[in-house]
Fold this sequence. Notes:
This protein has about 130 residues and is mostly helical. The chain has helices at about 5-30, 35-50, 60-80, 85-100, 125-130.
Amino acid sequence: MAEDDRQYLRRYVEGFKDALARAALELQKNEHKDWGVQGYGAFYENKSTGISIRQGEERGYDEGMKDAYATIGQDLRDHEFKEYSVEDYGVLYRNVSMEIGDCLNCENIGSEKGCKAGMTIWCPRLLETLKDRP
């Protein structure tokens, strides 16, 4: 992997994990009780589309945040865990953010041999490899 790609990936994962951790905290606080799970889903989808992607070293970070917020938004809108409250999703996302492993050196993208997040929608490497980059 070229050094520019390593730098991009490192920043992408940082942005992804930071966004996931921030959302986890916001959801655990649940300051907008009238929104519900679906309302928060729309909020994070909008937050994703509102992120401006900077150029240079920060591009990876911004794209990681954008992808994390989009994934959170879609996950909340799908609301597969019907018994989960907004706060429960916050706990889930906090736990996922701590389970993301060493993405930069991962050789098992999308497999059970990687980290706990590796076979889920929360694998930053899987998301990053699926995107079109200039």
